[in-house]
Amino acid sequence: MELRTLRYFIAVVREGSITAAAKSLHVTQPTLSRQLAALEVELGHALYQRNRQGIELTEQGVILRRYAESILALADKAEEEIALPTHSIAGKVHIAAGETQAMELIARAMERTQAEYPGIAFEIYSGTSADLMDNFVRGFYDFFLECELRSHVDMHTMKLPHLDEWGLLVRRDDPLANLAAVTAAELVGHPLISSRQGVKVGVLGQWLGELADKMDVRATYNLPLNAKFLVRQGLGAAFTYRGLFEANAMSDLAFVPLSPALESTQGIVWRKTLPTRQAQAFLDKLREVCAEEPSSTRADS
């Protein structure tokens, strides 16, 4: 398979028809059709079917789209880095980040990096730790801001001087809002909302212990911002970190901490292969920012 052919295929998927794709690629429709037909012959499977709306991918076409997008993204990233002048400190730094206030440290380091190296730009990707880690391992990101930092034998890690406090985001009229803190036992029978990882893993699973099986989880979320709307509609109380939402006396939402208190350690992860010059410049600034924090307990591995 050639990269050009994969780009043709992705263009057809994106545009929804061969005619529109040919126009966007500035090639003739017969040329594009021949390229796609040759790709199907090479793979031994039909990749799409025509219908009144345009095209619909077959099962094999869906699989190829997933891999083609990954291959093309990595190829573009490689071309971008190779094209930089030999001694230039410029280009993009790709950072995957879970939702945490530790992002403030990352943002501070980004600002300092750009102040010294105006040619550096940043791309931030948000999502669950599981989804982000998968793409991080495959090489899409330079760094991964991991919530609940774990040990990674084949990677470098740096603990950030920040702890996130767990609690529940609730509606102001929820009985839980009147509590100074909530225990696991008090959550039994109460409708809850959790991250997609669920309530049986990580530090939250340890905190709930045997009561995790008794939690009434009505919905799960990918990003905490979506959980806010579920809470507002009365679907339940959402497990989250303090400070991610406006939850004060003037808000219709309240944050209730857990009892006993529960905190998560956050950290940055990067591969042991030599980082790009721009990635190293950012890492140096991040170390600088962390060293200035009063409660800094930074430890590289």
Account of the protein in words:
The structure is a single chain. This protein is of the alpha/beta class. The protein has three domains: 3-82, Arc Repressor Mutant, subunit A; 91-162 and 264-292, 3-Layer(aba) Sandwich (D-Maltodextrin-Binding Protein, domain 2), CATH 3.40.190.10; 165-263, 3-Layer(aba) Sandwich (D-Maltodextrin-Binding Protein, domain 2). It is built from nine helices and eleven strands. It has helices spanning 3-15, 18-25, 29-43, 59-82, 103-116, 129-137, 202-208, 224-232, 277-292, and strands at 48-51, 54-57, 91-97, 120-126, 143-147, 155-171, 191-195, 216-221, 237-241, 253-257, 263-271. Strands 3, 4, 5, 6, 7, 8, 9, 10 and 11 form a nine-stranded mixed β-sheet that branches. A two-stranded antiparallel sheet has the order 1-2. Helix 7 (202-208) links the parallel strand 7 (191-195) and strand 8. Helix 1 (3-15) crosses helix 2, helix 2 (18-25) packs across helix 3 (29-43) and helix 5 (103-116) crosses helix 9 (277-292).
